Amino acid sequence: MDFSDDLASAVRKSWSEPSDPPLFSESSNSPIGTPQEGSACSSGTHESSNPDSSEEYHLWKHHYAISDDAKTTNPQGELMNVLQELEFSEQPRPQQVRRSSIEDVSKIRQWLNPRSSFSGAPTNELNWQNSAQNRCWISILSDERDMGPIRVLDFTLRACHSRYTLYVLVPHDLEDLAKELAKLGIHVIAMEKIAPRLVPKLVPDSTSSPSDAPFFGNWNLLAPFLCLRDSFELVCYLSPRCAVLANVDELLASETVSDEIDNETCVLLTNTTDEPPMMIVLRPNDGIEACIREYMSIYISKDSNEKWSRLQNSTGLDVLKELFKDSWGVVAGEYCQRGPGTLSSGIKIVENPNNEPWSSQSSDEITSIWRRAWLELNRSSP
């Protein structure tokens, strides 16, 4: 077979470039596939089927960095396109990645295998147009203590002239708080209570009491994955304790970021994997929703049930790590900071764990941001 010079060169380049090892073999369960016995969805555990696997083997970690243009010194400036870098989990990051070469390899792989994850967004989902209506910011109101911080989050997003709307997920039993947010001009979406459930048809003694799941907020981090299918193409969750200091629309506008989330090799991107994330970028998907719901379901009696006990002591973050730890990427970690304390250079999103940081007597820089935002918010409110 004869190839044109360009195609032959690209094929040779594809052969010479290292490729990502598959995260799931043919015999293992995909995180969005039908749960089988022993799978992560059915038992909550996942063991390698390779008897030779050891600590010497390292999966690839995917990191995506969003940074300012080299000519821009003001953190309020526009963001650069997301740069994709690959690194071994315990090896130093390469100094430079030849992006054009990576793109060429991706194109070749897509030509040779149209079903490859390198094609970006899956083709079996709704055909969305990239617009501000199809992508949005998401936060979650778990109780009354979140009201003030969410108002600050919405205010700072507007102050930074984000072209994307903030929607707040609110449980049905907090309808009064939802109405208050709506009166303030904040968009609200009703959400179900999220907790492990006993399947009644298969469990005769499945009558549950409030003590079975004493704190529904433990699993609220799963809400964006469960409540937004068919509503948005791409969403970015922001913690209700966050404030935005500079425009970060790139998290939603960048096609490099959105195409990376194919819900097969990559399900979510967060600013960190070591602690509760301040932000999560995800693509709502019926397969991911089904996987989470299956994992949260109990088909045998809760009495002396190890999975039931484990779920009761878990959080939404624990569930995401259990199901998607091999399909998890990192993005924007370089401009996220958790306070209180001194604000670092280049930070665009900050989180303050206090319920009312504007009332705190602390004089640290991050707490002062909330104090100024709260004063300005109330000054501008009718």
From TrEMBL:
Residues 25-52 have a biased composition (Polar residues). It comes from the Eukaryota. InterPro entries: Nucleotide-diphossugar_trans. Residues 1-55 are annotated as: Disordered. This is LAMI_0G13762g1_1. The lineage of its organism: Eukaryota, Fungi, Dikarya, Ascomycota, Saccharomycotina.
